[in-house]
Structure formats: structure tokens, C-alpha cells
Amino acid sequence: MTFRPEDVFQHLADGKTRDEIARMYGYKARRYLDQFMMRRGYRWSDEQATYVERVEPKKRRRSPKVARVIEAFQAEPYGDPKRIAEALGFASAFEMAQYMQSHGYLWSNTARNYVAQERTQDTTSPSVEPDLPRETVSSESESVSLPLGDALELLGMLVKHRAKLERLLLHTERGATDVPRYTIPGFSVVKSLHISVELDRLLRAASQAWRMSQREILEAAIIEFLRKHGYDEVIHRLLTGRKQERTS
Fold first, then answer.
1. Same domain flag for 47 and 68
2. Which of 22, 23, 26, 101 could bond to 33 as cystine, CB 3.0-4.6 Å?
3. Do 165 and 196 lie in a common domain?
4. What CATH number does the domain containing 87 carry?
5. Domain boundary residue, one of 107, 123, 139
């Protein structure tokens, strides 16, 4: 038996259910009736209790500046983001990342470009924070000779401040942004906290710009806060794995 969408609408108006209409036309389940109507441009609406015309979502229109950023990385997938950002009128790569995020685009290491957030969410695990394009860092080393007296004085100062040097060199990694990364021994526990929407947005943007996970940023913030407020030695023992000596 052949039928048209108009027949389905008529049966619905007569009070028949989708299951009843589906059986009338030989369908085993109403989902096949839904598929029939979908192929003809209709979808089921629970609110209106009938089929309504499908409306295709409008494609997101890029702003001219967003388009220029994407085109720049299309031309240079491995280009220096700092240079590209400045060429496009941004103060820094971080500011460019914030601008793109505010327009619904995040950096994708796979595409080597900014992509719409929907695509990023489809291809990236929620537990993995997306990365920003890495800036090219160049370093130059110079050979410096010191008189013996100055060298011994410098060596003595290094020995005197050995503990601080251990914290800086052994347990932190500082990149172009000079943000510390700590390696904390021991097991991990799950902590849940409520923060403002604006602070969450700022945390996500910083995570992308610094190529750090949100957990690393929060751990660094807690450690730096405790150090400044009387827990410097405790934090030092924690990071070096040393147990506090018992006093009798």
C-alpha cells in the first residue's frame, strides 16, 4: 500500500497514534514511519505531537578576522603563532587564542589550525585539554670565563641556595611563559569544586595558551599560595620526597 505524508497527517488528525499508523502500512515499529517522513522533509515534534518540517541549521559565518587567522595557518601550518598573531593585529598568541575561542574556534593539533568547537568536541576526549600552536623558541648559549675568586664565590652562593635551586631545576619546568610545572609524588584523589563561569573561562584559555592541563595550573597555584603563606618547607619536603625528621 502506497501512501503520502498527507495521509499520515490525516490519520494523526483522526486520533491515531504513530504505532497504529505504522502497522497500517506494514511497518514493524514507528521508527520506520519516522524514517519515511524524514526522507520527505519532516521530523517528529513531541511538543506539537505531530510531524513538522525539518529546518536545516544555518552554517556559522566566520568574521573576516577569524577567516584571516584560519587562512594564515592554512598557508603556514607550522608557522610561528606569535609572528602570525602580531601580523594580524593581536598583541600575542594568547590574545589570538582568546579571540578565536570567543568566536567558537579552538586549536587542533591534528588539523594544525583553529576549528569549530563542535568538531573539536567530536574528535577530542573531554579529559584531554586541547593544545595551542607551539611557539618557536630559540636559545643561544655563550661561553663565559670567570676569575678563580669569582668562580669560588659563585660556587659558594650556589651551595648556600641549593634547596631553592632544587625546587627551580629539579621539580619545575619553565617554558616561554615562565609558568612552573610541578612533579608531585604520591597518589591522586578526586576533588570537585565550584568556581565562577568567568574564572572557568579564564582557566580554559590559560590552559590552551600555556599548553598545560587545568590540573597542572591549579596544582601550581596551590603550591605557590602555600609557599607564600608559611608552608615553604613543607612544600619543599613534598616535592623532594623527603619525610619530616622526628624530634625527640
1. no
2. 22
3. yes
4. 1.10.10
5. 123
- Beta-strand relationship, 105-108 and 50-53: unpaired
Domain holding 111, by residue range, is 64-123
CB-based contacts of 192-195 (< 8 A; 24+ apart in sequence): none
Alpha-carbon gap, residue 34 to 69, rounded angstroms: 42
User: Whole-model pTM?
Assistant: 0.30
For the stretch 174-180, contacts whose Cβ atoms lie closer than 8 Å and that sit 24 or more positions apart, written own/partner, are 175/137, 175/210, 175/211, 176/135, 176/137, 177/209, 177/210, 179/210, 179/212, 179/217, 179/220, 180/220, 180/223, 180/224
**Mean pLDDT of all residues in 144-151:** 58
The pLDDT of residue 93 is 86
Count how many domains the chain has: 3
Look at residues 45, 53, 5 and name the one whose alpha carbon lies nearest to residue 25: 5
Confidence of residue 178 (pLDDT cuts 50, 70, 90): low
pLDDT in tens, 13-30: 889 999 998 888 888 888
Question: 100: Cβ–Cβ under 8 A, 6 or more apart, which residues?
Answer: 66, 69, 106, 107, 114
Assess if residue 136 is contained within a domain: no
3-state secondary structure of 43: strand
β 113-116/42-45 pair status:
unpaired
Residue where the block lists cell 522533509 = 41
Find the helix or strand (DSSP H, E) in which 108 lies: strand 105-108
Evaluate whether residue 134 is within a structural domain.
no
C-alpha cell at 81: 603563532
